[in-house]
Amino acid sequence: MGLISAGATIFDNGVLNHGTMTFIKKLTASSSANLTFVDGASSVVLDGTFKEYMFTFKNIHPASNAVDFQVNFRDGSTAYDAPKIATFFDAFHQENGSDSGLRYDAGGETYDAPGTGVQILSYNLGSENDGNLGGYLKLVNPASTTFQKMYSSDINCQYLNTYSIQSHADGYCNTAAAIDGVQFTFSSGAIAAGDICLYGISG
Amino acid sequence: MAVISNTTTIIDAGAISPATAGSMNLIKSITASSSATITFTHGDSGVIFDDTYDVYVFKFINLHPASANIDFHFQVDTGTNTNFNQPIVSAAGVGYHNEADNASGFTYGTDMSQVGTAFQGLLDNASPTGNDSNGGGSLTFYSPSSDTFVKLFAAKMFGQGHGDYFAAYNTSGYVNTATALTKVRFKYASGNIDSGEIKLYGVKG
Lengths: 203, 205
What we know:
The complex is a heterodimer.
Chain A: E1 3-5, E2 8-12, E3 15-16, E4 21-32, E5 35-38, E6 52-62, E7 67-74, E8 84-94, E9 100-104, E10 119-125, E11 133-140, E12 149-159, E13 163-173, E14 181-186, E15 191-201
Antiparallel strand pairs in A: 1-2, 2-3, 4-15, 5-14, 6-11, 6-15, 7-10, 7-14, 8-9, 8-13, 11-12, 12-13
Chain B: E1 3-5, E2 8-12, E3 15-16, E4 24-35, E5 38-41, E6 55-65, E7 70-78, E8 88-98, E9 104-108, E10 115-116, E11 120-126, E12 135-142, E13 151-161, E14 165-175, E15 181-188, E16 193-203
């Protein structure tokens, strides 16, 4: 049974059109080499259904110390190698209060160079038991076959076990091909624990 | 058909009422088609921009100008005024990186910071010639209907600009008035909004 009001479907097939931020998929790491969202696999939706997608990161914890949390995008093949151009800056403050600042990281390809390598989202995450990162990544209209694919990430993490650091990575996949897969990894070692949830923003 | 429960309207006119819907609700989506401006006015065409919500979020998807290398900006107004010249105090930080990979950095966005009544910049020198170039992001207003406080806003925008550069624009400020805002206008500094969507959401808390 469905309910239609003024031509708009309010609910149908057991789904209520309630609000505009729709939970799609949650992946929980358990010593995972990567966490990967692929359109059409395991109930993941990453196509033209929504104009904006948001990944949230909760208590992402690495198996190895001083590792970078990173993302890459799939643009037509099975490889995660979409060309990207991005900026990256961070603000940091050490736990003992002795060091703080704002920094643009132009430190080479790993941080912001255009190319097909991974996009760093947060780096040098510490692996002490309480070390983790949290934040989000937004991806705009990945199914477009006309426009570049804008993405924007804000993350806070414990840097090298002794700093709070907020990292801002923003860029675009410089391709008109649709993005249909997103893969998260650490630069070395597994994702020991944590959740990544995917939401679609409708409207 | 409407659904009314204990005198509370749950559903009417094809929408769940804001009072009973989720915590982030689409209010209005406007699609540009060679549009000189896009304006959201409380009470017009289903737009809500009052104390129904504490927080309002505009989202911009694939904004594409008719003219290349052009600023995208906004202004607001109060009551029934339509001058769109409210006083704004703002600051901006911009990260940039060119496709040739020989220039990058983070800088204070002088061109997007103001103390004045001009339209407030969101994208600077946006979208060079090229069908794939576009801009997007979000702009958040906090309690725009307050009759006590100045109206804080924060934007995180991104896109291709200044030629083959990617730029991330972090702009925030306040509209320096205690009068409730009732409307928001978006436009490019010159020429039309060729295509793109602007969506207004209300966030309950």
